[in-house]
Amino acid sequence: MARVSVKYQDNIARVTLTRGDKMNALDTAMIQAIVSAGQEVAASDARAVVLSGEGKSFCAGLDMMSFGALAAEENTDWIMDRTHEDANLFQEVALVWRRVQVPVIAAVQGAVYGGGLQLALGADIRIAAPDAKFSVMEMKWGLIPDMGGMVLLPQLMRSDALRQMTYTARPVDVNQALAWGLVTSVDDDPMTAAFALAEEIAGKSPNAIRAAKRLIDIAESQSRQDVLLAESAEQGKLIGKAEQMEVIAANMQGRKPDFK
């Protein structure tokens, strides 16, 4: 059974977790399928991505059968294997979406727990349904978040809120998640809102959008000097080039730009 669907329409990649009957819980096959989907999208000409999960929940975290099999293994050396640049396979579930060069918008509903939360954190933007609930669930099972969460969570949340979520594993509702920075916005129809935003982004200069994502990644992790240099380097690749001139012409003529 397929775990993930990838479809393309109007320069937008739609990536859907398709294990809705299991709350899109993450087993090994689904983890591999999510990473493969991210790699496929990264190699495509998509200008924006919408990431979602079918059914009542976006993703409820690790599938307990798979968790049990992993917990029974005596050799855990695989955890330390850097199979995907600086990450292992599990961490790449979230980080692959940061490696995708265009914006990724997650539309989430229901349970967004554990590995599912970390997957959503890999997106640039998260639009949540009013029923969405979020949990750093790992402590419930005597574990810590290990799917890229500790790279991404500190960029969004203040330390005391992050510590409370991590130490207690208690779910929080969408309003608390919004206040703590886990959610970008709340919408009664997050899929429609996500596609509308993806369409808006896909209509912008593709080169400038990709440059902006690269620049934000640098700004979040590197020094002032490196950020200033990156600003200049990225701008130098854009200013006066054909794509930017088309944006100027379209604005002056009151039309949508045409990016060949």
From TrEMBL:
Keyword hit for Lipid metabolism: yes
One Pfam short name: ECH_1
Alphabetically ordered keywords of this record: Fatty acid metabolism, Isomerase, Lipid metabolism
UniProt-listed GO biological process terms: fatty acid beta-oxidation
Signal peptide location: none
Pathway it works in: Lipid metabolism; fatty acid beta-oxidation
GO molecular function: isomerase activity
Gene3D superfamilies reported in the protein's UniProt record: 2-enoyl-CoA Hydratase, Chain A, domain 1, Lyase 2-enoyl-coa Hydratase, Chain A, domain 2
InterPro entries reported in the protein's UniProt record: ClpP/crotonase-like_dom_sf, Ech1-like, Enoyl-CoA_hyd/isom_CS, Enoyl-CoA_hydra/iso, Enoyl-CoA_hydra_C
Annotated family: Belongs to the enoyl-CoA hydratase/isomerase family.
Protein name: Crotonase/enoyl-CoA hydratase family protein
Organism per entry: Phaeobacter gallaeciensis
